[in-house]
Amino acid sequence: MEKTQNLDVAFYVKLISPIVVGLIIYICPTPDGLSNNAWLYCSIFAALIIALILEPIPAALIGVIAITIAVVFKVGAVGSGETNANISSSVAINWGLSGFSNAVVWLIFIAFNIGLGFSKTGLGERIALYLVKSLGKSTLGIGYAITIVDFILAPFIPSNAARSGGTIYPVVNSIAKIFESTPESNPKKIGSYLVYTGLAASCVTSSIFLTGQAPNPLALSLLNKQGVSVVDWLSWFIAFAPVGVILLIITPLLIYYIYPPEIKGSIQIAKWADEEYQKLGKITKSQIYMAIICLIGLILWIGSSFFKINATTTALILVILMCATKVITWQDFLSNKSAWNTLVWFATLVAMATGLKNVGYLDWAGDILGVYLTDFSPFWAMILLLLSFSFFRYLFASGTAYVTAMIAIFATIASSIPNLDVKETMLILCLPMGFMGIITPYGTGCSPLWYGSRYIKSGEFFKLGAIFAILYLGIYIVIGIPYIKLVMPYLNFH
Description:
- It is built from 23 helices and no strands.
- It is mainly α.
- The protein folds into 2 domains: 1-96, no CATH class; 101-327 and 359-494, no CATH class.
- The mean pLDDT is 86.
């Protein structure tokens, strides 16, 4: 009874806190340079971010509530100016629903349905078991198998939580149980190593591919609305490729030495995986269709500039092919709740984020913050922006909330620094968003899953997060930034 009461109290605290924060901000004096309407919008937006961090109710519903409040008060819409007296309700609602016409939001939504094909056909599980049976004679080999599986799935499943929860975690959990390595008994025997490798691999692949995690295309969409040129799918991959290859190769090995398992290898793992693989039987027709459809998708994404086909159009083609080959049914498409939930969530966040620009908040904040960086050279200003942008992840329990709150502000700051190439700087800031999710147990979508397995204690999780975030970011700065500057003229910006 007492436990239930405590949960009720915690829920209401989380529910009320965003409202209180929003009201406190609103009753504070309006800063010089901002209109009263802009300050009202800022208070609504601040409440939105706090609510997304605490998440007392579903995130998509939070977005709907925030956009509705803004529409009711007629703040955030283009042309709202100093007053809202002359803004019609139709203008306000058209702005509020503008996120639903965003191509990137639909790309994310459709990609979730592509991921459904991997799950329904069992292709993801087949790939995972095949790699484990092939590489599973050593614990390090399993680490690489986990990494390779995530790498294969990442271009098509824009949710590292879905990749981990739907395919990789069940395999990891089964392997750990073979050796009686559980959260309560012998977690470091093998379970903790596999768990952290699963998290790290998913974070790395989230940076390698534009479609590796939903915040990546969302960030580019918000930047595009800011007037900052953004890259396509192939250019993103090329820009991160050298660092991505290095991180893929060293991650299982680094964890093996920094957080070593007690079991270094066993034929039992490969034997178990082989037995499970045999139970799957021969590859099915739907799995073959799914593999071919994914290959078509990769070709079209990589060759988008040649074929003149937008990434979202390619995703639509893949869904049509999946339905035509009966990999998924139209009912599967309609009943994919996580995809529709994401569509509503991201559409409302895109509109809310553009509202900050419309009311003049971003220009105001950028001018203030940019003053502190004007004394630095463009290179060091860019490094300071990268470090600040990356380590702000400690404050956010959602990569999406983090992007929504921070990306446009940093773009405005970058624009205010003399002689700084804004499009290059923002690309450099965006590419590490995936791997910096490793920094906390709540920093990215899959983190709560791996942390919630309880194989790794909270203190150790934070310690490992700091170590790997610094290592990854160090490699990125030393190798990635010079490479990006080298290939910038050859990347496709639009």
